[in-house]
Amino acid sequence: MFHSLCFYSKRSVQELEAILVQHQDDFSLLLEDTFSELELEQYETLLEDLSSPVVQTLSSELQFDDFEVLESEEKEQRRLFLEAKGALLLENVANLHFNPFQVTYIKEILRSLDDVLVDRGGFYPLLSKKAFHDSLKGYKTIFSLLKEEEKVVPQPSLDFNNPIDMIISDIYKDLARLEENGLTFETSDWSEKVRLLYVSLKKNKQNAQTLLGETKLSPKDFGDNLEKLKFMLRKIN
């Protein structure tokens, strides 16, 4: 992992400073729009670890031939370097594997810049803006934090000494058979209570106790219509 990044740009120092100010404002708004205050507090350590760029003038002693370059890119990269007037430097870059805020910060500032040359320090060769942006695709951004983790819903266990649970078990076997064989069917002509049971069973794995509580059917209606559902599914082939 690189510890510093430098973007060489044809923009002047004054233009880069204006871009940086706007970028800081836009990034702050992005965070406010994406996370609640409480969530931002939870990510405080990652936010404090961010490396923000500073604008620099190019040293007259810095020469293109000082860099590692890919032979296939040398001509274009030399042209871009000779056009460069200023640079944005990030030091002590947060580990991109563990800090999606740093990844997003870098991607967003790249969007604000024209074609730049990216110096990753050390013995890394120079990269174009596109090539560097493509190299970031494997890292998580802040938007990955928004994806809800799949909630593991405890699955009620079926009691095979309970006749109603045995019927439910048979219904699940038939549903699995129909799905495996790609068989479809209409439920519009089913009674409301049978359809209610079917929808509830498709939604979550349930046993008799949880299913009865969800459907709020009377015990007699519950048992009778489960039998009907089992019979109707068994006929589909």
Q: What does the model show?
A:
This protein is of the alpha+beta class. It contains 10 helices and 5 strands; from the N terminus they run βαααβαβαββααααα. It has helices at about 15-35, 35-40, 45-50, 75-85, 100-110, 130-135, 165-180, 190-205, 210-215, 220-235, and strands at about 5-10, 55, 85-90, 115-120, 125-130. The protein has a 5-stranded antiparallel β-sheet with strand order 2-3-1-4-5, sandwiched between helices. A hairpin with a 7-residue loop joins strand 4 (about 115-120) and strand 5. Helix 1 (about 15-35) crosses helix 5, helix 7 runs parallel beside helix 10 (about 220-235) and helix 8 (about 190-205) crosses helix 10 (about 220-235). The longest helix has 22 residues, at about 15-35.
What's the short story on this structure?
The protein is an alpha+beta fold and 237 residues long. It has helices spanning 13-34, 37-42, 44-48, 74-83, 100-112, 129-135, 163-180, 192-203, 208-215, 219-235; strands at residues 4-9, 54-57, 86-91, 116-119, 127-128.
